[in-house]
Amino acid sequence: MRGRDVFLESLRLHDAKRIFGNPGTTESPLLDHLADYPDIEYVVALYEAVAVGAASFYAQSSGKTAIANLHVAPGLGNAAGMMYSTMRANAPVIITAGQQDTRMRLQGPVLGHDLVSIAAPVTKWAVQVETADEMADIMRRAFKVANEAPKGPVFVALPINVMEQETENAAVTSGPLHQAPTGDMAALANIAAALSAAKSPAIVAGDDVARAGANGELLQLAEKLGASVWTEGMHAQAIADTRHPLMRGGLPFEAGPIKAMLGDADCVLLIGGPFFEPVWYEPGSPFPDGADVFQIEQSPQMLARNFTLNSGVISAPKQALAALLEMSKPDASAAKARVDALTAAQADSREAQKARTARAAGRRPMPMSVAMAAMAEALPDNVVMVEEAITASTDFSRSIDFAGPGDYYAGRGGAIGQGLAGAIGVSVANPDRPVVCVSGDGSAMYSIQALWTAAHHNLNLVFVILSNREYRILKHNIDVYRGRFDAESNRGYTHMDLTGPDFGFVQMAAGMGVPGEQVSEPEEFTAALARAIASDGPALIDVVIEGKAK
Length: 550
Prior knowledge:
This protein is of the alpha/beta class. The chain has helices at 3-13, 28-31, 48-62, 72-88, 115-119, 132-146, 160-164, 185-197, 207-211, 215-225, 255-262, 317-327, 332-360, 368-378, 393-399, 418-429, 441-444, 450-456, 472-484, 505-511, 522-534; strands at residues 18-21, 41-44, 66-71, 93-99, 125-128, 154-159, 201-205, 228-231, 247-250, 267-271, 292-297, 311-314, 384-388, 408-410, 435-440, 461-467, 516-519, 539-544. Strands 2-1-3-4-6-5 form a 6-stranded parallel sheet, sandwiched between helices. Strands 9-8-7-10-11-12 form a 6-stranded parallel sheet. The longest helix is centred in the middle third of the chain and has 29 residues, at 332-360.
């Protein structure tokens, strides 16, 4: 057999039946022989970053290892930013790129470069297959490394001549690997005792809780303790049912605001995330003074990475939460009083959002709160949301509820352009559910080519573009910069408006085979979204919303 067959058989053996790719000449051995593997689907993207973004979100939404296929050095470079986001999202993706014939290595061939050196900084492992005899073991190891905690992308360079070499080494797997560690029971018992004794316990849950399907254990533990439950400010999934009365939403990014939000918490449990990822430098602790802090993670590199702990435990989230649930012995009446108080606080927050939306109802262009309320009216119960709303994300999270993992996906790492690309992968992973992607207009332009892929594969996917004609987040951040660094503040916002000319999203969508319309009134938006969701295939809605006041 040839190297190309070992590669494709490796995908079969590991149940990786979809390749998200942007092909080129060095990928000829793969593309020319995919017809021999009809069970492996190739999802075509027009730009390498879109292929990697789609693969990343597909991996997160399907629970499978995704494959992204890129083209030599420039293509790999085009995808590097999305590879960074994939790494920050802990998505198990094997990224491949065709490489020039190794017999030309010393001649400096067209498009040739050291692909491993490009990929190494944004992957867990980067390697080039030097002979067909190596293909089976490299692919076996690539799947293993991509799925070890913390999960993440792996890169494999595939020289065209190696793909055509003969080998007797058939594709193999590593076999069943049981990688859910059970935490130290004595250490978990100590954490349970501290949580039980706390007067105001708080839990901060990361994406690993959602990936592990531990949302049920999380909420049961919170109910038993009377603990508030928070998420990271930037999270890739819905950690648990957002309608649950103990769910308090996302924390801010800097130490001071986090500390303020946690309030009088005297015992904080961190579980399943890279706590915390700040945007701006701020000294001091994010935890209330005197609070005990505990952390539970699947991998040692996350444990106590940023903070001194009272105790830390390596454990799979589901097992750890189940153990804490069994071991915790709080005062039942005190816990109930806390549950009642938190329930009332959540009800107050929801009423405050309704009042805020009502006060803004008459403004035009539509405020973000009004647009998000209008969108919520049209969403069916089985919708999957992909969100890159950025400055509208607070109104989004306060207006739209999710039952838990599988209903919501967003990007990690802070790079924009993940929404449209990621929505492709989520839609491919959920062919029987409608998918709605909400993106800002600036973010959408980073991966607008995703519209063509949605049309080409006839995905049931609605793109909602929030058009405020500006990089609004940058305007907010320059205000913060001026305040933090005492910079002159009598200037405007240079190079942050997206006008002259305005974007024509409806026209762009039409040019890529996606029907679209522009709306500027709440009722128009609700009706347009309902029509788009009910239709077959992709659609786009350009929603005119207000920008930042000058």
